[in-house]
Design goal:
By secondary structure, the protein is of the alpha/beta class. It is built from 13 helices and 12 strands.
Length: 369
């Protein structure tokens, strides 16, 4: 079927015989005129989104070629859903015998009352991205202009959703000197995000700790913890879109560096309780910088209490951050090579900001690269 559009459809079921529902849907798609079913991914079992009290879902992805237009394909899929017993549902993410979503339709970007393509949250769903990756990992997302394999790697097998009822928080993370505050401040200036800055300048204990007075280490950690908890309370952020130059969870990295075993055990318990009270991140931007690059920027900004920071200290932090983000799966993480960007340039901030807006569900024009 040369010249036809290649499209991807996501299938999901969590009622009755899920495998049979999916097979019937696939058979119906394959038997439809002007649709050629090419490949089907493996089936994946997933938990319901938004902690719904439902049965687990069975999902897969199918690649097709079709002569149909996108709106015509949508009508076909709705008809198949109805024939398999799916009822019209008012509640979001309700139980369903079958769910058929157009994920991608060639390189098209479509936004109408009834249809948005690419699927507006497919980049947040591991089960959708993994299915496309299994078929063709180099498939490009038309809006983000990145491969599905790259998008999938950001999720660590997690499945996320945009909840407009809670504050949206973007956390910029990285080793000391990676450029976190520069980027966070740039996002505030370019996009008007509410800026939440780390309480470096007001922490009275930190200069003493950097000067080698380890007896103040626990005081310093608790100061930062209290400050973060005050800054990130949901009632403080409310309906704002906020960007912080830290991520709450990084505190355990520094606690391991500065605290002795007894202090760390106490701090870990306090942190576990207090961290539950803050707004969770919607998205993390990890500025990955070489220790040498961080040291160079630290020397350039010349903060008095940072003058004794050396390369070995930064290498230790760098390795700790790497281990942390290798397993972090609480939200999507976009990793940026900090040596390849200059976020003092508004154009670079704007380009990344458009991608950020897409991840947190804010309408934006097609991204520039």
């Amino acid at each position: 079927m040369a010249g036809d559009v290649t499209a991807y459809i996501g299938l999901g079921s969590n009622l009755n015989n899920r495998q049979r529902n999916i097979k019937k849907a696939l058979d119906a798609i394959a038997s439809t005129k002007n649709i050629n079913l090419l490949r089907v991914s493996s089936e994946i079992e997933t938990k319901p989104l938004a902690d719904k009290k439902q049965s687990d879902y069975l999902n897969c992805v199918v690649q097709i070629q079709t002569k149909l237009k996108a709106d015509e394909l949508l009508k076909v899929l709705k008809k198949i859903e109805g024939s398999l017993g799916r009822k019209k549902q008012v509640e979001k993410w309700a139980n369903r015998t079958i769910d058929l979503d157009i994920l991608l339709f060639g390189k098209k970007i479509i936004k109408t009352k009834d249809l948005v393509i690419p699927h507006p949250q497919m980049h947040l769903r591991s089960f959708a991205l993994n299915g496309i990756c299994e078929i063709d990992p180099q498939t490009i997302h038309p809006v983000l202009q990145e491969s599905v394999s790259e998008l999938y790697s950001r999720l660590k097998d997690g499945n996320f959703y945009i909840d407009e009822n809670i504050p949206r928080l973007i956390c910029v993370s990285g080793v000391i000197g990676a450029g976190k505050t520069t980027l966070a401040s740039g996002l505030k200036d370019v996009y008007g995000f509410n800026l939440v800055k780390e309480a470096y300048d007001t922490n009275p204990f930190m200069p003493k700790v950097y000067a080698g007075q380890k007896s103040f280490a626990l005081d310093s950690q608790l100061y930062f913890l209290l400050s973060r908890c005050e800054q990130l309370q949901p009632e403080v952020l409310r309906d704002k879109i906020s960007v912080s130059d830290y991520i709450m969870q990084q505190e355990m990295i520094y606690a391991r560096v500065w605290l002795d075993a007894m202090q760390f055990d106490l701090y870990r318990k306090i942190n576990a309780v207090m961290a539950k009270t803050v707004t969770p991140p919607s998205l993390v931007i990890y500025l990955k910088s070489t220790p040498a690059g961080c040291l160079k920027r630290i020397k350039e900004r010349s903060r008095p209490y940072e003058r004794d920071i050396d390369l070995s200290f930064l290498e230790n932090l760098h390795n700790s951050y790497q281990r942390f983000f290798d397993s972090f799966n609480q939200c999507p993480v976009i990793t940026i090579d900090a040596e390849a960007v200059d976020f003092r340039q508004n154009e670079q901030v704007e380009t990344l900001g458009k991608k950020i807006n897409y991840y947190i569900g804010i309408a934006t024009k097609t991204l520039r690269h």
